[in-house]
Amino acid sequence: MTRDDGSPTAGSSELSSRDLILNTARTLISSHGYDGMVISDLSEGSGLPASSIYYHFGNKLGVLVALLERTFEDLHASYPSPSSFDGHPPLERFELWLTAACTALDRRPEYLRLLLAVSVGSHADEDNVRATVRRIRDYAHVSWVEALTPVMAPLDSAEDRELLEWLAVLGRAMTDGLSVSTGFDGTTYLSHVPAFVALVRGFAENRRLNDQG
Q1: Which terminus of the chain is more solvent-facing, meaning fewer CB atoms within 10 Å of its CB: N or C?
Q2: Is the pLDDT of residue 91 over 60?
Q3: Which residues have C-beta within 8 Å of that of residue 144, sequence separation ≥ 6?
Q4: Of the candidates 111, 3, 18, 12, the residue with the CA atom closest to the CA atom of residue 56
């Protein structure tokens, strides 16, 4: 049995014990934060004894690290590469990529919510947690830079690269913030694509006019 997004449900026989525990952990952390997740709840939610949790992950922090690793793998698999849209004009290429990326996030909104949930608390300073979160965020940042480069920095000047990096950070911050508002306000990532594309179009046009002047 699967969810609408194609992933197996917690009660599915297709799932291993490890997957059952990680799916339960994702639900608990998204709802209560990492500090609010306890082994007894993991055991009850997964239908497995606590000994199974310790066997697979060692401790609660081990569950978190494994969940972050799986999140990165899932994100890497579902997040579109800007190069998939090569052959289109630069701005159209960016809009197609952003539309595909936001569609992917709308289908699996728990990914970014999980990252926000684990960013609060003493566990956030653990080296293995920080390294995995940084890897996820660096991957997203590189995607933004790759998508924006043909629009904002085709000549790779220092000034263009600076604006490009700023827009990439702004785009990543937008998706971070939307991970909260999509839950509270019922908005979607996809609904914000036109506004961000218009912002990028305006910067690109201003750059072009400055180059001509």
Answers
A1: C
A2: yes
A3: 167, 168, 171, 172
A4: 18
